[in-house]
Amino acid sequence: MNEYFDGFSFVDRIASIEEGVRIRGSYHIPSTIDSFPPMLVAEAIGQLAAWAAMNVVNFERRPVGGIVGSIDFLAPVRPGRTLELSAELQSVDAEAVVYDGTAHVDGIPVIRIQHCLGPMVPAGDFDDPNMLRNRFAILSGAGVAPGAFGGLPPLSFERIDGETGQRARAAFRVPASAAFFAAHFPRRPVFPGTLLLHINLELGALFAAEIPTPQNGFEWTVRTALDVKLREFIPPGETVELQVHLKKRLTDSAILAAENRVAKRVVGSGQLRLVPEARS
Amino acid sequence: MSETSITKEELDAVYPKVAETMADALGCEVRRVKLDASLIDDLGMESIDFLDVVFRLERGFKVKIPRGKIVEEARGDLSESEFEQRGVVSDAGLERLRSFLSEVPPERFKTPVKAADVPRLFTVETFCKIVIRQQRIAAATSGSPIA
Hints:
The complex is a heterodimer of chains A (280) and B (147).
Chain A (H helix, E strand, L loop, with lengths): L2 H4 L6 E6 L3 E7 L9 H19 L4 E3 L3 E7 L8 E11 L3 E10 L2 E15 L6 H12 L16 E7 L3 E7 L6 H4 L9 H16 L9 E13 L8 E11 L4 E9 L2 E14 L2
Antiparallel strand pairs in A: 1-2, 2-5, 3-7, 4-7, 4-10, 5-6, 6-7, 8-9, 9-11, 10-13, 11-12, 12-13
Helix pairs in contact in A: 2-5
Chain B lengths: L7 H19 L20 H15 L8 H6 L4 H4 E2 L2 E2 L1 H10 L23 H19 L5
Helix pairs in contact in B: 1-2, 1-6
């Protein structure tokens, strides 16, 4: 049964749960993978909150990616470390779950998510509800053995055009097949919203290098993702147009606005807050 | 407590913040969020935007808005079968809707009205009124005057 979840599951164990209020758990990042992007840490927090939300509605509905008020990237995370995850649920019902969450490593916060809203959809359209119930029971007990995740496949985009330091446009082709589609989701594979945000962060970081910094020896670093909104499910093989532009630049921060389109329809949007940091 | 008892002063008190909240959620200019603007036809709101707006209004006004029950509230005391038949709003349902959505110009009620299209009638003022009703409920529950 574990293979069902192996490709994209980032909770090994649920340590405690107060129904509909809060949940705590953990995930050990396999030391065998090359990297574990920050957005997968955010995904782990979201998955933990999803278990809490699904439990409230007896796994008849499940949350999907929707809206995130802010994601603070506080510290990098390396393979081989254990994430201590927590989520505080503000509300959960058949329509949506609203929560805040954090991930710590060795007691130090690495990612903080605030004002996150996941629309609840019929679980059976995406997953086998019984499999979800069984998995929840295992996670709430002894947990699962860590190490199943084999890393992400290459996810790259191609710059199309732009204006140096002002705007950039790129094309991203969602893989037609990938291990994570088996878990996300078994009955309806869709590209994870957190990976779409990961791609936007990559483009944002590349674009940020084109923006003049307030002082020599500094570089812009993405510190926060803001007002993220996912509007549509993106199927395997789809091509997504990524756009980013400099919205505001101050001495101590800059804001990039990002928009993603499929066939001219906006499928996702958000902002990235950059701060200047001394080059390492 | 009926919607007709909502005063202009109450509307004026909440509208600027509701407009700002909607503009933030939709990423549009606040001047586009006119009181009589249709949320779907004029502002292009989709289901995720409705969730977003409700979520932000709850935070901004510190009230609880029952998600997914706005249409139910519009139905009032009518049962589902009294309100609609085979997906079309009944005459009794229309009468109730015209009263509940008194801010919506009559010409927007193009009959027959499909039950699924009821949210298409909602305007910015509709959400101002929802906030005001929830503020009243919160004040009545806490026993304190409306802030």
